[in-house]
């Protein structure tokens, strides 16, 4: 029972202790690392608690760590590292005491110390001073109206006497427009990209541009256009506009609101890209320097070119090839098939999501200007919840500012939750959430089913692929104290999961056949939630390669199986005239017997030529082609596999086998419909029959027909091919017949080749 | 250089080796003007196709052996192109509708109706009807079988259908009632031995008695397999001796090895290895039912008799669910996982 208590996930006795209430920001400047599971509060909640009081939570112990909060089942590595760095360790009670007793500190994010009731504390003033520095530095060069902000911020206010709501700056502008960056330093994140873009634009010269994608990839200067890609709201358009403006370009923008079909793009843009503006020559400041007011074309949202914009991308590519002005294309999804063709003609520039640190300062100063007080860790929460979408953060904050002047940590969580993007989680994340112990137990049944619906064709496969790699927690809880008991239970868990998955397969089959989509939730439970219930736990270490869950192997194996099935079907079809067995029987009984017959003679050292002849005769007997020879070996396993069977066949023999086979001619049971084309439909006649004599007769007929068809329809490639092949085969068979024995096949083949050559020449002549 | 099994295949009713009474019956049927639809069933390698072809030869004569293969293309309602190969002579046509998977209904509807609606052109033909042979009839979808039932009655003057299948269990009742059921049972060990001896004499090889019996037994009533085994053994080693080992086929060895691995260790790690091996088998086109069956038989040879019934039940359950589902690997894996859990507990309890 001890094990049960120990391994139990989540808090052992939730709610038994009172959650402490401390002074605001009492944990400011302290960094915490959590390890193990606390007893009365879940780890996530405890981390939130620390963040609420201004502390930082990091994942690993370092020199900057102030405290390590140790719970049950603590990670050994974290503890040793903490000990070596002499970091103080706290247990749950210690943490709570710390919160209760620590003195509050002024919010370093606020530049108005007077507003905080706890400013009297001596220790706090020093920390506030420390924290003040970077913020001041950040904002010092940023806004022209900084002084007014300071004046406003310094207005003495106490918590109690704060006016209910300070009126906002009366401006109709959106924050995003109002605080648009005006110089390179203002851009949040992607600094190197912006610099690169600026350099490219500055040095842009149509004559140096190259057509080769490879050259463009290396050097942006070689390309006439740049393709900027990245998620929404991180400042792609802003950066493009800013750079163009600062480099002194006139901007011409096309976006999704314009029609961008082939025609309009050609009409409007072509004119422009092939010429110069008059302003270039007449404007005063550009006197003497032609470069002054050049144009840049910004094609925004190119992945949004829709059905109405037919041919737009192709035209754009044409324009890029000849453009005399730089072109900047912007898109969200670089993988989109629409953009794919464009990629080869542009320098590829990817904008990344900015980090919290990169946006924090700017956002804080904007809020300050607008009179919104942001508490500790607030920006971090917002950045995480919006996935670094700066535009969304600013819009959220500006809306929030209408009702309040202060945003605390709890409120920010609420805010971000209510406006959380319904973003798609990657299949790996979903699998992780379902199979990892903590996240499985933390999410509700409905949540898990929701995860299934994020991609109901892939998630079950992900679960099926990965459930087997789990060490099920359930087994530790119910397997009793002994290891063997737990091992048995673990296998039981896996077996139950496997059973459930197998059953889900039946459900999905019924659902597909009857098109009863109402069965999906049921399938979700059986294929995903239930197996996850049985096997959730920790990933077994030895399987944990590549740092995550594996992609479903089923997909690859299934297509592989399909391919081999096709090969087998082909082999069986060719053998069909001689063999009555179905596909399975051919694979299970024939191929193992046949594979050695097709390879052993080649290995005989005394005469490779006779060996080759023997093999080819066997193949002809069964109407097998050279490709079938490969297929048969591919289909074998172990001692019948290609590796074993072809081992010992000298390469020279193999090539001479292929050459001999291609040189000589072989009976074919039939021609595929696609080869014959329509022309052959009518001329079925009698088909080729098993023995060679019949082949000859039949083929002669077909030859005649083929010639007629050649006359009738000169352009029919199928017919042309038919002539060649059939003639060749007929000749070969005739040659064989004449010589009366198989040993002269090679000679016959030669003659056949000759006659085939002459007859195909003949047919060509006819064409002329 | 044909294989023995093809070289010595009997081509007429007179040359058939066993099931004399069945041969007799077939001969009488071929002689009478009234020839019914046939449902020929029996295990593979028992001689179903051989008998069907012999009967057709009896009816139409030599020409029926002149076969050709055509390829026909159909367009499904969803505009997908499907291709099917047709083996035919002037008097009969043979198709494997399961080649086109779930589109088999379309093939049945279009192709068979087309044949059924045209009369025999050849005035010299001995019968006014043509014969359509449907291979692997047990894999016909229910839809396809229903499409067949009315056609079989309506066009009786022009068409006879011969269904060839391993088991009648998946042929719907209405079809079964429209056909004369012909069971071609697996030949007994003695009969197989007899055929093998006959072949051996023609080929001029000597088979020791015990060696022959061993092959006959191992073939499990599959004459085709027996002859192929004989030939493989001959390629590997000749002359035979009584204690000469008989080579198993590649996949049988692989499954046997897999069974050993399963019985030797029951851990999640091993289960994962087994998954890889099962995929390997499936990728090499071994039918999943065959894998499950062979694996089960190999396993029960290695474990205590006490738990055998349970294992067999499990295998039966999973075969059922495998046929109902569409991803065989899930069911095979579930079987292995279940067995591992069961066997591990069994061993644990045995120790105490």
UniProtKB/TrEMBL annotation, chain A:
<dbReference type="InterPro" id="IPR012178">
    <property type="entry name" value="RFC1"/>
</dbReference>
<feature type="domain" description="BRCT">
    <location>
        <begin position="22"/>
        <end position="103"/>
    </location>
</feature>
<dbReference type="InterPro" id="IPR001357">
    <property type="entry name" value="BRCT_dom"/>
</dbReference>
<dbReference type="GO" id="GO:0005634">
    <property type="term" value="C:nucleus"/>
</dbReference>
<keyword id="KW-0235">DNA replication</keyword>
<dbReference type="GO" id="GO:0006298">
    <property type="term" value="P:mismatch repair"/>
</dbReference>
<feature type="region of interest" description="Disordered">
    <location>
        <begin position="728"/>
        <end position="768"/>
    </location>
</feature>
<dbReference type="InterPro" id="IPR003593">
    <property type="entry name" value="AAA+_ATPase"/>
</dbReference>
<dbReference type="InterPro" id="IPR003959">
    <property type="entry name" value="ATPase_AAA_core"/>
</dbReference>
<dbReference type="Pfam" id="PF00533">
    <property type="entry name" value="BRCT"/>
</dbReference>
<dbReference type="GO" id="GO:0003677">
    <property type="term" value="F:DNA binding"/>
</dbReference>
<dbReference type="Pfam" id="PF08519">
    <property type="entry name" value="RFC1"/>
</dbReference>
<dbReference type="InterPro" id="IPR036420">
    <property type="entry name" value="BRCT_dom_sf"/>
</dbReference>
<keyword id="KW-0067">ATP-binding</keyword>
<dbReference type="Pfam" id="PF25361">
    <property type="entry name" value="AAA_lid_RFC1"/>
</dbReference>
<dbReference type="GO" id="GO:0003689">
    <property type="term" value="F:DNA clamp loader activity"/>
</dbReference>
<feature type="region of interest" description="Disordered">
    <location>
        <begin position="665"/>
        <end position="693"/>
    </location>
</feature>
<dbReference type="GO" id="GO:1902983">
    <property type="term" value="P:DNA strand elongation involved in mitotic DNA replication"/>
</dbReference>
<dbReference type="GO" id="GO:0005663">
    <property type="term" value="C:DNA replication factor C complex"/>
</dbReference>
<comment type="similarity">
    <text>Belongs to the activator 1 large subunit family.</text>
</comment>
<dbReference type="GO" id="GO:0006272">
    <property type="term" value="P:leading strand elongation"/>
</dbReference>
<dbReference type="GO" id="GO:0003682">
    <property type="term" value="F:chromatin binding"/>
</dbReference>
UniProtKB/TrEMBL annotation, chain B:
<dbReference type="InterPro" id="IPR050238">
    <property type="entry name" value="DNA_Rep/Repair_Clamp_Loader"/>
</dbReference>
<dbReference type="GO" id="GO:0031390">
    <property type="term" value="C:Ctf18 RFC-like complex"/>
</dbReference>
<feature type="domain" description="AAA+ ATPase">
    <location>
        <begin position="34"/>
        <end position="187"/>
    </location>
</feature>
<protein>
    <recommendedName>
        <fullName>Replication factor C subunit 5</fullName>
    </recommendedName>
</protein>
<keyword id="KW-0378">Hydrolase</keyword>
<keyword id="KW-0539">Nucleus</keyword>
<dbReference type="GO" id="GO:0031389">
    <property type="term" value="C:Rad17 RFC-like complex"/>
</dbReference>
<comment type="similarity">
    <text>Belongs to the activator 1 small subunits family.</text>
</comment>
<dbReference type="Pfam" id="PF21960">
    <property type="entry name" value="RCF1-5-like_lid"/>
</dbReference>
<dbReference type="InterPro" id="IPR003593">
    <property type="entry name" value="AAA+_ATPase"/>
</dbReference>
<dbReference type="GO" id="GO:0003689">
    <property type="term" value="F:DNA clamp loader activity"/>
</dbReference>
<dbReference type="GO" id="GO:0016787">
    <property type="term" value="F:hydrolase activity"/>
</dbReference>
<dbReference type="GO" id="GO:0031391">
    <property type="term" value="C:Elg1 RFC-like complex"/>
</dbReference>
<dbReference type="Pfam" id="PF13177">
    <property type="entry name" value="DNA_pol3_delta2"/>
</dbReference>
<keyword id="KW-0235">DNA replication</keyword>
<dbReference type="GO" id="GO:0003677">
    <property type="term" value="F:DNA binding"/>
</dbReference>
<dbReference type="InterPro" id="IPR027417">
    <property type="entry name" value="P-loop_NTPase"/>
</dbReference>
<dbReference type="GO" id="GO:0005663">
    <property type="term" value="C:DNA replication factor C complex"/>
</dbReference>
<dbReference type="GO" id="GO:0006271">
    <property type="term" value="P:DNA strand elongation involved in DNA replication"/>
</dbReference>
<dbReference type="Pfam" id="PF22534">
    <property type="entry name" value="RFC_C"/>
</dbReference>
<dbReference type="GO" id="GO:0006281">
    <property type="term" value="P:DNA repair"/>
</dbReference>
<dbReference type="InterPro" id="IPR008921">
    <property type="entry name" value="DNA_pol3_clamp-load_cplx_C"/>
</dbReference>
């Amino acid at each position: 029972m001890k094990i049960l208590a120990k391994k139990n996930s989540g808090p052992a006795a939730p709610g038994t202790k009172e959650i402490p209430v401390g002074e605001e920001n009492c944990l400011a400047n302290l960094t915490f690392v959590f390890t193990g599971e606390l007893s009365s509060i879940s780890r996530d909640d405890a981390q939130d608690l620390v963040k609420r009081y201004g502390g930082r939570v990091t994942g690993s112990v370092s020199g900057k760590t102030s405290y390590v909060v140790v719970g049950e089942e603590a990670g050994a590595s974290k503890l040793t590292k903490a000990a070596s760095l002499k970091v103080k360790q706290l247990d749950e009670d210690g943490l709570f005491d710390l919160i209760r007793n620590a003195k509050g500190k002024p919010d370093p994010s606020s530049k108005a110390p007077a507003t905080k009731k706890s400013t009297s504390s001596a220790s706090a003033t020093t920390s506030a001073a420390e924290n003040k520095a970077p913020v001041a530095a950040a904002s010092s060069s940023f806004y022209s109206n900084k002084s007014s902000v300071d004046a406003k911020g310094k207005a003495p206010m106490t918590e109690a006497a704060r006016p209910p709501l300070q009126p906002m700056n009366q401006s109709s502008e959106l924050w995003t427009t109002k605080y648009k960056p005006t110089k390179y330093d203002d851009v949040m994140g992607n600094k190197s990209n912006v610099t690169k873009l600026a350099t490219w634009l500055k040095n842009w010269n149509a004559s140096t541009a190259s057509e080769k994608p490879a050259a463009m990839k290396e050097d942006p200067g070689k390309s006439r256009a740049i393709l900027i890609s990245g998620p929404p709201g991180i400042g792609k358009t802003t950066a493009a506009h800013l750079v163009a403006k600062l480099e002194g370009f006139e901007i011409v923008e096309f976006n999704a609101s314009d029609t961008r079909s082939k025609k309009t793009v050609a009409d409007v843009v072509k004119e422009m890209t092939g010429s110069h503006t008059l302003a270039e020559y007449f404007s005063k400041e550009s006197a003497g320097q032609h470069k002054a007011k050049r144009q840049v074309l910004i094609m925004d949202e190119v992945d949004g070119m829709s059905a109405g914009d037919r041919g737009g991308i192709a035209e754009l590519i044409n324009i890029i090839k000849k453009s005399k002005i730089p072109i900047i294309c912007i898109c969200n999804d670089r993988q989109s098939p629409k953009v794919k063709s464009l990629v080869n003609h542009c320098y590829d520039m990817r904008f990344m999501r900015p980090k919290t640190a990169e946006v924090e300062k700017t956002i804080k100063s904007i809020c300050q200007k607008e009179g919104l007080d942001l508490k500790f860790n607030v920006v971090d929460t917002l950045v995480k919840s919006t996935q670094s979408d700066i535009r969304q953060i600013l819009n959220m904050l500006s809306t929030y500012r209408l009702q309040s002047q202060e945003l605390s940590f709890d409120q920010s969580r609420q805010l971000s939750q209510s406006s959380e993007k319904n973003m798609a989680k990657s299949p790996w994340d979903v699998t992780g959430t379902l199979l990892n112990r903590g996240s499985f137990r933390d999410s509700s049944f409905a949540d898990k089913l929701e995860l299934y619906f994020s991609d109901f064709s892939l998630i079950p496969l992900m679960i099926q692929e990965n459930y087997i790699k789990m060490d099920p927690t359930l087994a530790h809880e119910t397997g009793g104290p002994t290891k063997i008991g737990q091992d048995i239970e673990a296998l039981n868990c896996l077996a139950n999961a496997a059973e459930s998955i197998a059953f889900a397969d039946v459900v999905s089959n019924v659902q597909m056949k009857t098109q009863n989509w109402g069965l999906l939730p049921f399938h979700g439970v059986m294929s995903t939630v239930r197996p996850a219930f049985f096997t959730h736990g920790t990933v077994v270490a030895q399987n944990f390669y590549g740092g995550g869950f594996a992609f479903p192997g089923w997909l690859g194996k299934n297509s592989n199986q399909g391919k081999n099935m096709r090969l087998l079907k082909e082999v069986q079809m060719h053998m069909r005239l001689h063999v009555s067995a179905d596909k399975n029987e051919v694979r299970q009984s024939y191929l193992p017997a046949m594979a050695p017959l097709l390879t052993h003679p080649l290995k005989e050292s005394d005469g490779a030529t006779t060996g080759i002849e023997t093999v080819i005769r066997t193949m002809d007997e069964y109407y097998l082609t050279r490709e079938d020879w490969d297929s048969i070996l591919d289909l074998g396993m172990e001692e019948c596999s290609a590796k074993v069977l072809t081992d010992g066949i000298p390469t020279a023999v193999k090539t001479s086998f292929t050459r001999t086979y291609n040189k000589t001619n072989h009976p074919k049971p039939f021609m595929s419909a696609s080869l014959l084309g329509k022309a052959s439909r009518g001329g079925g006649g009698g088909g080729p029959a098993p023995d060679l004599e019949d082949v000859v007769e039949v083929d002669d007929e077909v030859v005649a027909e083929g010639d007629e068809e050649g006359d009738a329809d000169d352009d029919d490639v199928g017919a042309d091919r038919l002539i060649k092949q059939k003639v060749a085969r007929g000749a070969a068979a005739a040659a064989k017949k004449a010589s009366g024995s198989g040993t002269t096949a090679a000679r016959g083949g030669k003659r056949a080749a000759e006659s085939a050559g002459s007859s195909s020449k003949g047919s060509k002549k006819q064409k002329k | 250089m044909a294989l023995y099994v093809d070289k010595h295949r009997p081509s007429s009713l007179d040359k058939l080796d066993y099931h004399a009474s069945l041969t007799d019956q077939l001969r009488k049927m071929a002689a009478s003007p009234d020839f019914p639809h046939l449902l020929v069933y029996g295990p593979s390698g028992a001689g179903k196709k051989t008998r069907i072809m012999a009967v057709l030869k009896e009816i139409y004569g030599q020409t029926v052996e002149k076969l050709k293969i055509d390829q026909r293309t159909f367009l499904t309602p969803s505009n997908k192109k499907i291709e099917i190969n047709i083996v035919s002579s002037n008097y009969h046509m043979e198709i494997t509708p399961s080649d086109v998977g779930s589109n088999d209904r379309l093939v049945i509807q279009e192709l068979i109706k087309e044949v059924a609606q045209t009369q025999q052109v050849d005035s010299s033909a001995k019968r006014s009807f043509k014969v359509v042979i449907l291979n692997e009839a047990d894999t016909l979808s229910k839809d396809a079988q229903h499409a067949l039932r009315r056609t079989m009655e309506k066009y009786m003057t022009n068409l006879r259908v011969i269904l060839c299948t391993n088991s009648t269990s998946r042929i719907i009742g209405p079809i079964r009632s429209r056909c004369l059921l012909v069971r071609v049972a697996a030949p007994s060990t003695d009969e197989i031995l007899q055929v093998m001896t006959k072949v051996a004499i023609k080929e001029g090889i000597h088979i020791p008695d015990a060696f022959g019996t061993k092959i006959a037994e191992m073939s499990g009533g599959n004459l085709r397999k027996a002859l192929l085994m004989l030939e493989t053994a001959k390629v590997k080693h000749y002359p035979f001796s009584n204690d000469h080992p008989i080579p198993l086929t590649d996949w049988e060895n692989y499954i046997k090895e897999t069974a050993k691995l399963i019985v030797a260790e029951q851990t999640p790690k091993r289960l994962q290895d087994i998954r890889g091996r099962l995929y390997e088998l499936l990728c090499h086109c071994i039918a999943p039912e065959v894998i499950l069956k062979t694996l089960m038989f190999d396993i029960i040879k290695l474990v205590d008799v006490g738990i055998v019934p349970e294992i067999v039940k499990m295998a039966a359950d999973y075969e059922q669910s495998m046929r109902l589902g569409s991803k065989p690997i899930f069911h095979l894996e579930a079987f292995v996982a279940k067995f591992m859990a069961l066997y591990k507990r069994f061993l644990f309890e045995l120790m105490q």
